[in-house]
Every structure is written in structure tokens, then in C-alpha cells.
Write a structure and sequence with these properties.
alpha/beta
Length: 268
């Protein structure tokens, strides 16, 4: 898959005004990012990629991604750090700033959204598109509320009672952040700092902290939930070999089918 990623077709630069999609990525995951973006472009997604450096980009990788996806942007780690110092200062947001150093998933919130305005969509790299994602492209064309995938079960890393105590509204079920879009200037960073600090003080950090925070944000914003039929989390091996969904998100045991079978269906 890594070798084949280097030979993926080069897509034309997106049209002026095409929506942007964001990826947190770097040297370990560039080939998965490339396949995900290639599959979206292949199935009608005229989008402009923005790559958020996870700290491992170098000049060679920047040049490679820029050549493969003309018109993309790479936001370097130093640029992001300076920006966060201005808009999300450590003195005011110590928990969020400390967590993003060791818990990289949080950067899909902080590094993409903090201090910005308008709607932004983040895609995980370990996903593939197999047909035109009509609902998602419709959202990109005219976003009106947040959007996210649906999980196979609640995976928030913290007790439901602790999450419920942080919000006045019911916490939605089965929020998954493989696809996640928010209006950046609609995110309450003071609330997220309070929520993260409270959860970590009582229960410690969790691999699912980002997903828990997104679920808390979603509790008050009536998000668009992408259907499990078309946007499939944890596809089984048969689905990996013979995709029927518009998109797969390869978590946990589905990574075996991803690396052995699914990506190959896009190279014919």
C-alpha cells in the first residue's frame, strides 16, 4: 500500500472556491492520507486538502504531497504552535494545551479549529471512499450544522454519568469522529477546557477524550449523523473485499481487511 501510494494518479487542482477538507497527518500516515483523499477525488469530491502537520513533516514529504495533490496546503507544526500561543494560550487553557502534546487526536480539534471562523471538516486518514458520498458532499456545499459519523457503540472513555454532569442536554449516542465537521467559531473553548480538566482529574486521560469532547459539543448543536449504511465503521472482511458502502472507516479489527483487501479495490 505504501509503494502503491507513491504511484497514485495526480489529480488536477480543485476549482476555485472548492471546499477544504482537513487531515492531521505526517510521515507514518501519509500513504493512508493519500489513499483516502485519492478515493474521495475519484468519486466526485472536488475538494482542496489541508494537511495539518503532526510534527513529522519534512521538506521532502511536503513536496511529495504538494505534487500529488496540487493546490493543497501544509500547515507546519511551528506555525500551528505559534498560532495556538496566540489564540489558545497555555495560561488560560492548560489542560487542552498539555493534552495535545501527548494525545495527538486532540489536535483535530485544537490545531484545526482554534481561533478560526467558518465551517471546517476533518477526515481521518484510515478511511476509503467507494462511491460518491452524496450526503457528505451536500454538507460541504452548504453546511448548516455539525456533522459526524455514527459508531457501533458508545466509545467515550468516561462514565456516562460524568459526561452527563457536564452538559444540560443529553449526550448523543455513538458519536464517531472519523468524519467530523464544526463551525470553528461556534466551539466554546472555555467549556472544552473545563470538561477536559474535570474528566481527567476524576478519571485520568483516555484514548477517547477527543470523541468524548465532540459528543459533549454535539449535545447542544443537533448535528447531522451520517448513516451507518453508507458511512460504515468497522466493516467486516466481506465488506472490505466487496464494498457496498460509500465509505469505510477502518478501526480495530477491520484494519486487517483494510491493509489486505480494501485499498486494492481502488487501484484497478
Amino acid at each position: 500500500m505504501q509503494r502503491t501510494a507513491r504511484d497514485l494518479p495526480v489529480w488536477p487542482e480543485p476549482r476555485s472556491g472548492s471546499p477544504e477538507v482537513y487531515f492531521l497527518t505526517g510521515r507514518r500516515f501519509w500513504y493512508q492520507t493519500a489513499f483516502c483523499l485519492h478515493s474521495l477525488r475519484r468519486h466526485g469530491g472536488d475538494v482542496r486538502a489541508v494537511f495539518i502537520d503532526d510534527g513529522s513533516f519534512n521538506a521532502a514529504l511536503t513536496a511529495e504531497m504538494s505534487a500529488k495533490f496540487p493546490g493543497c496546503r501544509v500547515v507546519g507544526a511551528a506555525e500551528t504552535h505559534a498560532w495556538l500561543d496566540a489564540v489558545l494560550p497555555i495560561s488560560r487553557y492548560p489542560t487542552l494545551r498539555a493534552q495535545r502534546l501527548t494525545y495527538l487526536h486532540l489536535r483535530k480539534l485544537t490545531d484545526v479549529h482554534a481561533g478560526h471562523s467558518g465551517w471546517r471538516l476533518v477526515l481521518d486518514s484510515d478511511m476509503l471512499f467507494f462511491r460518491r458520498p452524496e450526503t457528505l458532499l451536500g454538507w460541504l456545499a452548504a453546511p448548516e450544522r455539525p456533522v459526524h459519523m455514527v459508531d457501533v457503540h458508545d466509545a467515550y472513555g468516561y462514565p456516562a454519568t460524568s459526561l452527563a454532569a457536564l452538559t444540560k442536554e443529553p449526550v448523543p449516542e455513538k458519536v464517531n469522529v472519523g468524519i467530523c465537521g464544526f463551525r470553528s467559531d461556534g466551539i466554546d473553548w472555555d467549556f472544552l477546557e473545563h470538561a477536559a480538566d474535570t474528566l481527567i482529574r476524576h478519571h485520568g486521560s483516555s484514548y477517547y477524550l477527543e470523541q468524548a469532547l465532540v459528543a459533549l459539543l454535539a449535545s447542544t448543536q443537533n448535528p447531522l449523523r451520517l448513516t451507518e449504511v453508507d458511512y460504515r465503521l468497522l466493516p467486516d472482511e466481506h465488506e472490505c473485499r466487496h464494498p457496498t458502502a460509500a465509505l469505510h472507516h477502518y478501526v480495530d479489527l477491520s484494519k486487517r481487511g483494510y491493509f489486505r483487501h480494501a485499498w486494492r479495490t481502488l487501484t484497478g
